[in-house]
Amino acid sequence: MAKEPKFLVSTVGQMEALASPVRHQIHLVMEMLGACSVNELAERMGRVPETLYYHVRRLEKVGIVEQVGRRVGTGREEAIYQLKGKRLQVDPRQTSPRFLKAMTKSCGSLLRFAQRSLESAVQARVERRVGPKRRLRIEQATVRLSAGNLAELNKRLDSLCRFLNDADEPSEQKMYVITLATAPL
Fold this sequence. Notes:
Elements: E1 6-9, H1 12-17, H2 21-33, H3 38-45, H4 53-61, E2 65-73, E3 76-83, E4 87-90, H5 97-123, H6 147-167
């Protein structure tokens, strides 16, 4: 099965638009739903639609989301939106200080989204067991890496990302948030 194309985040505006956990959640829900209205997003996210219009328009303004049509829903006509690319990828060629600052904020937003997901799993008392059927896993490591070991780590992370992209099936399977970050200290 062919995977949807990645969306290359290459402008400051795009990166700044992603500096919100709500917008990351919108992106995630739109990955699951495909083309949808703000009302459908709100229902899936457990929010009122009025709190999402601004965020969807902001994503549309920077080209991450596009309006693909209109239909009658809940008694009136509503816009239908879809993602321009399922996966987001940051353009590594962008090195301006403003872009990098926005990227840092966006990464912080992703970490806050992961934190909220973790809090929900802990409150739901998701079992933390070992072995292949574990559903909740929290690990952090601080390690010293040679150039060769760093290259090997990046190779393995690339492989893991390819696996996650290929393993993602549009079905009723349980979704998992997987957040990976590496940074030199």
